[in-house]
Amino acid sequence: TDATPREVYVSTAAVGPFSLFWDVSRINIDTKECVLVQQNVMSSSVSRWQFIVKTGLALLCSWFDPPTAPLQWFPDDEMQFRGNIQLDLVHLGAYFCARGREEQD
Q1: Distance CA 78, CA 1 (A)
Q2: How far apart are CA 11 and CA 24, in angstroms?
Q3: Model confidence pLDDT, tens digit, residues 25-78
Q4: Long-range contacts of 10-19 (CB under 8 A, 24+ apart)
Q5: Pick from 33, 41, 99, 17: nearest CA to 25
Q6: What is the DSSP string of 36-71?
Q7: Which H/E stretch holds residue 23?
Q8: Are 24 and 76 in contact (CB under 8 A)?
Q9: What per-residue confidence (pLDDT) applies to 28?
Q10: b vs e for 41-54, b when ≥16 Cβ sit within 10 Å of the residue's Cβ?
């Protein structure tokens, strides 16, 4: 029905070495409309270069905070993708993070 559209959430990424860092898209089955719901900071080449440079700086300078990149997204009960796993290549760690509902875009 129009009140409850038939929608699916899928991971979308370009094929290649950075396909691990995917975005989340919503596809309406009836209208075939695809909407980007959550974009990964690593999905653009500019962001990837920034991540690489900042990681290098963090390795060289102990006072520089290492960057993290979202690796996995988690929706809440309203299908808002607020939670994720952040990957830190400098400290070889993974962190579970969540934004508050008021922080949503």
Answers
A1: 19
A2: 5
A3: 999 998 989 999 888 888 888 888 988 899 999 989 888 888 888 888 888 888
A4: 12/36, 13/40, 13/43, 14/43, 18/42, 18/43, 18/48
A5: 33
A6: EEE--GGGSHHHHHHHHHHHHHHHH-TTSPPP-EEE
A7: strand 23-28
A8: no
A9: 92
A10: ebbeeebbeebeeb
d(CA 1, CA 21): 34
3-class secondary structure, 83: strand
Give me 78's structure tokens. Answer: 């309203």
For 62, the token pair is: 């102990």
Task: Look up the pTM and report it.
Answer: 0.67
